[in-house]
Amino acid sequence: MRRSNTQPYSKYDVASLDKSLNSMCIMLETQDVHESKSVDLTIGFLLKPLLTVMKLTGLYYEHSSKSDKRKQNQLQFVYCLFICFLLWCNTLKFISVFLLTNFKDRTALHLPSFMLTVVAQLWLLLCSCTQTTFIISSYQRNKFYTIMFDYTFCKYIECQSSISKRFKFGIYSATILCLITIISNTLGLFIAYFGPSEYMKVFQMFLAPFHQKSTITHNIPYKLFICILQLYESAAWTLPPTLFSILCLIGYSEFENFNEYIKQEVQQANAQQRVEYWRQSHNRLIKLVHTLDSTFQIYVSVALSINIVVAFLMLYIIAMM
Questions:
Q1: Distance, CA of 1 to CA of 31 (rounded, Å)
Q2: Can you give the pLDDT at residue 244?
Q3: Distance set, CA 45 to CA 14, 55, 65 (Å)
Q4: Where are the beta strands (DSSP E) in 172-289?
Q5: How many CA atoms lie within 13 A of 256 on its CB side?
Q6: Burial of 233 by CB count in 10 Å (0-12 exposed, 13-18 middle, 19+ buried)?
Q7: What confidence tier does 162 reach under pLDDT thresholds 50, 70, 90?
Q8: What is the CA angle 155-160-162, rounded to 5?
Q9: CA atoms of 81 and 73, how far apart (whole Å)
Q10: Which of 218, 222, 188 is CA-nearest to residue 204?
């Protein structure tokens, strides 16, 4: 009997299969567009609480093509730049005061205390650099905005089903923990600056703001201003790494779901029909990873370099105490 030379997959009509796949994709996209009118499926909607806190603390600037929101966005951008200016002034002021003091006497008196002061200066530098890099990242419309709010890019990422169920509680919990950390850090500095003996002076200043007694007005406005800056420093310390970690987890989840989907299709012998769909899904995942890398590479480099130095200094301080 003559053996046929046709390949096992020749029974599939490639042209008709391509047309059916295209029609199916068009149908799914049309369905997704209709659903998007009632439900926002972007990653930005999933991270809305965290992004709102970042906007309030001057860490995020949102682009918008709507004319009625342009003025509001411009004011938000000016607010972010103003906070950035204040943080850098505060950082440079403390670093300059630290460098202008008697360096040899400080090291001779108590070296762990000196190292702890160095850690504090590095922490201020880290917060200022983080705030600056995130303003730059959010200003890059083709990167940060694409990840968060571009529907044509995010509609294939199933944040409305698998990601939202897995991460929604975690995102809200992380946002609450960040707020607790920011408030606690600010209150800690407030208590350290004023203490119980200074509370009455502070309240007297608010009750009689034009009182000329030096014991009431001495350094209190400056200390309150530093406490407010501490709030913004704490926000720049906690919120950006939280956002970056959540986006990395979303990317990891997408790769995990993609690999599981391929495994199921191979087991069901549907690999030949779904090759083009796999290629498109893989390209979207690669684009997500590339966009995350290009958006946050400056932040990761700065944060990693400063935190490594801080970690070694803290280990030295712990060993010396």
A1: 51
A2: 87
A3: 39, 14, 17
A4: none
A5: 8
A6: buried
A7: low
A8: 110
A9: 12
A10: 218
**What whole-number distance in Å separates Cα of residue 102 and Cα of residue 85?**
28
Contact 128, 287 (CB under 8 A): no
Q: What distance in Å separates the CA atoms of residue 182 and residue 188, rounded to the nearest whole number? A: 10
SS3 39: coil
68 DSSP 8-state letter:
G
CA distance 301 to 236: 16
DSSP string, 14-37: HHHHHHHHHHHHHHHHHHHHHHHT
Q: Is the pTM of this model over 0.85?
A: no
Model pLDDT for residues 281-290, shown as the tens digit of each residue? 777 777 777 7
At residue 219, the 3 state secondary structure works out as coil
Which residue from 285, 309, 289 is spatially nearest to 297, judged by alpha carbons?
289
Three-state SS at 36: helix
For the purposes of burial, counting CB atoms within 10 Å of the CB of 156, is it exposed (0-12), middle (13-18) or buried (19 or more)?
middle
Residues with Cβ within 8 Å of residue 128, at least 6 apart in sequence:
84, 87, 88, 90, 91, 233, 236
Q: Is 16 exposed, middle or buried (0-12, 13-18, 19+ CB in 10 A)?
A: exposed
- CB 24: neighbour CB atoms within 10 A? 11
Least confident of 22-36, 87-101, 115-129, 170-184: 22-36
Whole-angstrom distance, CA of residue 167 vs CA of residue 179: 18
